[in-house]
Amino acid sequence: MSTKKPQLRLGAFLPSTGHHVASWRHPEAQADGGLNFQHYKRLAQTAERGKFDMIFFADGVAVRDRNQGADVLSRNGKLVHFEPLTLLSALSVVTENIGLTATVSTTYNEPYHLARKFASLDYLSGGRAGWNLVTSATEAEALNFNQEKHMEHTLRYERAKEFVDVVTKLWDSWEDDAFLHDKESGIYFDPNKLHVPNHKGEHFSVRGPLNVARPIQGYPVIIQAGSSEDGKDLAAQTAEVIFTAQQTLAEAQAFYTDVKGRLVQYGRSPDHLKIMPGVFPVIGKTEQEAKDKFDQIQELIDPVVGLNLLGSMIGGFDLSGYPLDGPLPDLPETNGGKSRQQLLTDLARRENLTIRQLYLWIAGARGHRQILGTPEQIADQLEDWFVNGGADGFNIMPPWLPGGLDEFVDLVIPELQRRGLFRTEYEARTLRENLGLPRPVNQFSKVATREAAIA
Amino acid sequence: MSTKKPQLRLGAFLPSTGHHVASWRHPEAQADGGLNFQHYKRLAQTAERGKFDMIFFADGVAVRDRNQGADVLSRNGKLVHFEPLTLLSALSVVTENIGLTATVSTTYNEPYHLARKFASLDYLSGGRAGWNLVTSATEAEALNFNQEKHMEHTLRYERAKEFVDVVTKLWDSWEDDAFLHDKESGIYFDPNKLHVPNHKGEHFSVRGPLNVARPIQGYPVIIQAGSSEDGKDLAAQTAEVIFTAQQTLAEAQAFYTDVKGRLVQYGRSPDHLKIMPGVFPVIGKTEQEAKDKFDQIQELIDPVVGLNLLGSMIGGFDLSGYPLDGPLPDLPETNGGKSRQQLLTDLARRENLTIRQLYLWIAGARGHRQILGTPEQIADQLEDWFVNGGADGFNIMPPWLPGGLDEFVDLVIPELQRRGLFRTEYEARTLRENLGLPRPVNQFSKVATREAAIA
Ligand SMILES: Cc1cc2nc3c(=O)[nH]c(=O)nc-3n(C[C@H](O)[C@H](O)[C@H](O)COP(=O)(O)O)c2cc1C
Ligand SMILES: Cc1cc2nc3c(=O)[nH]c(=O)nc-3n(C[C@H](O)[C@H](O)[C@H](O)COP(=O)(O)O)c2cc1C
């Protein structure tokens, strides 16, 4: 297989009813999908049938859009859903090879809990866990955790950096071969292979060790999704996968080159970070059919919902006072998601979009790339970015679920496979191996720590 | 079925390799059970075959016994294991009727996370989740969460009380029938049925609402396991099941009467709290066989391990300086588990036990009741406490796993069923219904909150 083409990576990003803001109203959508395990079981098994590298669940620790009136809120079909780590744990039992990844915020969690839960998921799944590190972007989350304001952007990323440091130390508490289980001698583990992290830093003081053995993957795969300068820097230091939203090949190439270029200063190989922009595919037998399908779902958007989505995407501002068919007003800088606010204001100015046009533009993919077309056209677009240095793979965002995923698996995946761009069988059982990522060396095992191990 | 006898409740308390301190060394034990999903799957399915009300996992957020030397620590087979909520989520998929319960500490967690994860588990399992509320007993846990000392006992329970309050408010964020999923009108939920908790208290400020719908059971079943005055009071106010350790029928009756008596002041019926003392059964075809089995496992205890267990059970004191065959020294009061320290010192004084005798005494059941005998003898003992006001049921603690659970299910359960004391089929799909507990009314639904709902 030495002549095998480079392989692209695929994630299936699976919010309850789909990505489109009106997805739950689509005739083929599972409207109660957020809390329906059979729905998620079917999705995970479909993605595995399609040989996706991983499924991915976004997350936030609050009901978002809380600052809207009852009328807007009651039209939102995405407010309630499973907590991702409990859901992934359940899905680990009904899948075999696919990676199981989800967001957990570093701003509203403690490293010990996080390290432990992902290590536990890694054991449940035989090495298929992945963590999308985010620093959270909404004020609503702060209010659920004894705080009045969302932590300031720079501080959030400082905390995140130390958080990863603590988490990886905890994962390294035990060497891979620490456990002997020797019934005869009564020795359960080799004490030289236990390392107490004893972390004391700016934000965290965590003694350890972790009460889970070293994860099967060494570390679960670390993903990052912030595109600000702070976000990209953190990713260059710590992440193995980046989720990002890019609109044009030129932008994608610039982002790709920028982030990969940052790895060298941290002694990392560019190959060890996979960049996966989001793609929202609308698939038709003909291009026209794809466009009609898109129009059909766009028509299901209630204007108040569209406006509310736009408001929350630009940093939580209330746009209801502005005319729908007028321009986007100037906005104060947000403490939330900086990169998205920038993307949208740039777009509105560049393309001279009204508020309505802007919300229609984001209603599907929320700033990610939309591709409408036949399976061949979609494969062409993915191949174009992949071979031209814009992406290592893609995070696929079905417009509605389960139908949008079914179509991708049945129509687009076979086309990618025919072109030799995507696997027809999993290479391995672990997510890390399937992604072609190296297994991290235990940071403590190089040092002789016979005495230091047990304080 | 109106002549049916009162039914006893059974929990299966399932630590990785079993309850005995040397369980992992037992020839029939699964030595790597703590991180072996197939092992737990088999245990959960065996317990379900036995029609147990629930399985239960204890928990702590630290490697316990950290203050021991490497030699002691390396003989401990219980340091690493799955995180319970991820494990229960996975087990929800391979079971149908059995309750899925675990400990989560109120001292080292945030109510929003806890309410959310248990609500999520309740949906995954179709209404089978239960939460054992503890306030944590070890200093080691504090050190993993930015603290230098374990929070003081009274303060822990004050925090716990407010914690439950916040959690139940979050579970009540949505009324049971809030979600309409009406694709036609575009209305996803009835805004009058959303209640924002907006909790502001001494320890917590949590706005809510929860991003999970009201749990299938209303609330997951709330369990409590602290036996101090503070613990019993909290249980009387909030718990629906109590786990406890009692040695004699007289003690069990006193505890039972005491706790049930406390319910009236909170307007609760004594029937709505099930008291379940722990029982460590060693089962033989003859009484002698049971005794021999017990001796066999007792012989597997390394003295350093026994001493260490005793030290940790009496509040984390180092006993290694004291002669093994001398008396227990006087101990300073602990800030950890008060009720257990008391139980052990009383026992040592009363029975004039040496340190070695005391550790042998606790090596199996850690202060819970041990019953050695034939299936009939064990059933006699359980029946005795059950019909004489000492217990509503029992938390069964197999000495080693999986064997100890297999034997209980194959030998003791049929005997209890023959006596008409225990179900032969599950009555219902939810844990709450199987336990005969009422479904809690939503605390917000009585009030007209049309305007107040959305602030
Ligand atoms: C594919 C993708 C998924 C994301 N998932 C989450 C998520 O689950 N939770 C979240 O709070 N933010 C999520 N984000 C947002 C970012 O991670 C980040 O929090 C936000 O953009 C602010 O960071 P920044 O200022 O560095 O861009 C996601 C972004 C992308 C591109
Ligand atoms: C059956 C049973 C299970 C328990 N499980 C846990 C546990 O998982 N984690 C924990 O920290 N304490 C556990 N405990 C201990 C108590 O819940 C409590 O934390 C301790 O006894 C201190 O509280 P107290 O001073 O009120 O007794 C358990 C106790 C019993 C009887």
TrEMBL record, chains A, B:
Keyword ATP-binding in annotation: no
InterPro entries hit by this protein: Diverse_substr_monoxygenases (IPR051260), Luciferase-like_dom (IPR011251), Luciferase-like_sf (IPR036661), NTA_MOA (IPR016215)
Residues in Luciferase-like domain copies: 20-392
UniProt entry keywords in alphabetical sequence: Flavoprotein, FMN, Monooxygenase, Oxidoreductase
Top-level taxon: Bacteria
Family: Belongs to the NtaA/SnaA/DszA monooxygenase family.
Name this protein carries in UniProt: LLM class flavin-dependent oxidoreductase
UniProt organism field: Nostoc favosum CHAB5714
